[in-house]
Structures are given as structure tokens and as C-alpha cells.
């Protein structure tokens, strides 16, 4: 069962079709470039949502889909993501169009880190492409330190940013 977390402005919890529609719209934009986009095929967005949901069954943690508590609008997907291509849980974030630039990713990331700490998970990492300056800036604001690189496959290298351990670190 996917827990529900709350922050000052968001409810983070189970997937809804409204989240899929917002993510599919995001996937059509250039902002999705670091997730393999843009793409106009809704199956790509669907598969991504289902993969993040499937982590719950496989690992006991996974994707939290965010809703703006005040408006009820879907505003992002924040995950503790652990595919077989990495050796540890990763904290990942996607802020849907119209919700960016408001500090929601930092708010959600802190909530997920706090939750992960209560679950006994190790200090999380975020795997970020060197060109993804907005995500790097967020990782730095969150107190992360760059500790190396990871290669998903030859030529596909990302930087590993380590999150501080503990609640509200």
C-alpha cells in the first residue's frame, strides 16, 4: 500500500489518471529531455508511471504522485526509484508544467527523505545529468554533495549527488 505524505502545500500519495494526464503533457515538452523526452506517444508516459508504481511491489517504496492540496491539481511525481540499473535507491523528482519554480520539488524531496529515514533506507542519491542545471541547483539547495558518476550504459553517464541522512537534514 502506498502511504500518503503531506507537506505544507502538497499531498503525496497514490497515482490517479489526472497525474497520468499531467505527466503525459509534461513528456511532450522539452523539459522532459532528461527523462528521455520529448515524446508524443502517451504509452511512454504510461509506462513510466507504471514502472514507478511497480517499485512499491518490488521494493516496498516507489513513486509518490503529488497533488496541490489547495487546488487539487496534480503537480508532480517524486520517487524513491530503484531500477535494476542502479545499486541503491534514488530520490527523483518531476514537477509538472505550471507548478515549476515554486519550491515544490524541495518540499517534496524533504518529505520523501524524512519518510525514507523512518523506513531504514540508506542515505539516498540523486542521479543527475551534468547538463541538468536546474536539478543540480535543487540538489545543492537540499544539501547534497557530488560524490562520483554512474554509467547506465556506455556514453550515458550521470553525476551521483548524495543526500544528507536523517530527518529534515
Sequence of secondary-structure elements = EEHHEEEHEHEE
Strand content: 25-35%
Arithmetic mean pLDDT: 94
Instruction: Point out poorly predicted stretches.
Output: none
Helix content: 25-40%
Shape: globular
Global structural class: alpha+beta
Strand line-up of the largest beta sheet: 1-2-3-4-5
The major beta sheet can be summarized as: 5 strands, antiparallel
C-alpha end-to-end distance: 26 Å
Number of DSSP helices? 4
Offer a few descriptive terms.
169 residues; alpha+beta; 5-stranded antiparallel β-sheet; 3-stranded antiparallel β-sheet
Descriptive overview:
The protein is an alpha+beta fold and 169 residues long. 31% of the residues lie in helices and 27% in strands. The chain contains 4 helices and 8 strands, in the order E-E-H-H-E-E-E-H-E-H-E-E. It has helices at residues 17-27, 42-59, 104-118, 133-141; strands at 5-6, 10-13, 63-68, 74-81, 90-95, 125-128, 145-153, 156-162. Strands 1-2-3-4-5 form a 5-stranded antiparallel beta sheet, sandwiched between helices. Strands 6-8-7 form a 3-stranded antiparallel beta sheet, with helices on one face. Helix 1 crosses helix 2. The longest helix has 18 residues, at 42-59. The radius of gyration is 15 Å and the shape is globular. The two termini are 26 Å apart. The model has no long low-confidence stretch (mean pLDDT 94).
Amino acid at each position: 500500500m502506498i502511504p500518503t505524505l503531506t507537506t505544507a502545500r502538497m499531498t503525496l500519495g497514490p497515482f490517479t489518471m489526472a497525474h497520468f494526464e499531467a505527466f503525459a503533457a509534461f513528456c511532450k515538452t522539452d523539459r522532459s529531455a532528461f527523462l528521455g523526452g520529448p515524446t508524443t506517444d502517451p504509452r511512454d508516459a504510461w509506462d513510466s508511471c507504471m514502472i514507478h508504481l511497480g517499485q512499491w511491489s518490488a521494493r516496498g517504496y516507489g513513486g509518490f504522485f503529488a497533488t496541490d492540496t489547495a487546488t487539487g491539481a496534480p503537480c508532480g511525481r517524486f520517487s524513491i526509484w530503484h531500477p535494476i540499473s542502479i545499486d541503491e535507491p534514488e530520490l527523483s523528482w518531476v514537477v509538472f508544467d505550471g507548478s515549476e519554480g515554486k519550491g515544490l520539488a524541495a518540499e517534496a524531496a524533504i518529505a520523501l527523505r524524512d519518510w525514507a529515514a523512518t523506513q531504514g533506507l540508506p542515505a539516498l542519491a540523486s542521479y543527475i545529468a551534468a547538463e541538468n542545471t536546474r536539478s543540480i541547483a535543487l540538489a545543492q539547495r537540499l544539501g547534497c554533495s557530488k560524490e562520483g558518476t554512474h554509467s547506465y550504459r556506455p556514453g550515458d553517464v550521470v553525476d551521483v549527488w548524495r543526500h544528507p541522512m536523517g530527518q529534515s537534514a
